[in-house]
Design brief:
28% of the residues lie in helices and 24% in strands. It is α+β, with helices and mostly antiparallel strands. The strands form 2 sheets. It has a 5-stranded antiparallel β-sheet with strand order 2-3-1-6-5, with helices on one face. Strands 4-7 form a two-stranded parallel ribbon.
């Protein structure tokens, strides 16, 4: 084994999974999205609210435009294989960013394992973001005396690809 694999501080883990549905000004689509996310996860979603005024889009501060659910721990690890099955475990290199995050869209929720078609919801899609971390990332995010991370400790695109392949049997599309 290499030194990198033996060091517990180098182990990559899933910090959180965020499911997001953007609805814009459409209140009916927003309510369908709230119902869908609660049906998929069993957790009540949070509505996202606009902060800026964009008159050309008809947006004003305080207007709900989407909903999201954040899952951590065992719930996150349980839902990732179901979400990846909708993509047939194929992810493109574009789905990985340079900081250890994996994002992909699911155009139709009925592709997710265990999701049944609901005529009240219809066919809508959602966005999935998987955030990966290593032990010690809290130092960067804490309120009191935050500190920087060494470049060697930050998860790069190749590390994220290897982790997803080893943990969830994903394949890289070209």
């Amino acid at each position: 084994m290499t030194q990198e694999l033996m060091n517990p501080m180098r182990q990559i883990r899933v910090a959180k999974v965020t499911l997001n549905i953007g609805a814009g000004k459409d209140a009916q689509l927003l309510e369908k999205g709230v119902k869908l996310l609660e049906q998929l996860t069993g957790v009540p979603p949070v509505k996202t609210i606009t902060k800026k005024r964009i008159p050309s889009w008809g947006l004003r501060p305080g207007l709900p435009i989407g909903c999201k659910v954040t899952l951590r721990g065992k719930e996150a690890m349980d839902i990732i294989p179901r979400l990846l099955s909708a993509k047939e475990n194929n992810l493109s290199k574009k789905n990985y960013d340079s900081c250890g995050n994996v994002s992909f869209g699911i155009p139709e929720y009925i592709d997710i394992d265990g999701a049944k078609y609901d005529p009240e919801i219809g066919i809508i899609g959602l966005q999935v973001c998987i955030t990966l971390t290593r032990p010690g990332y809290r130092v960067k995010l804490r309120k009191i005396r935050p500190a920087g991370m060494k470049k060697s400790h930050i998860i790069n695109q190749d590390d994220a690809i290897q982790f997803m392949d080893a943990s969830f049997k994903t394949r890289l599309e070209e």
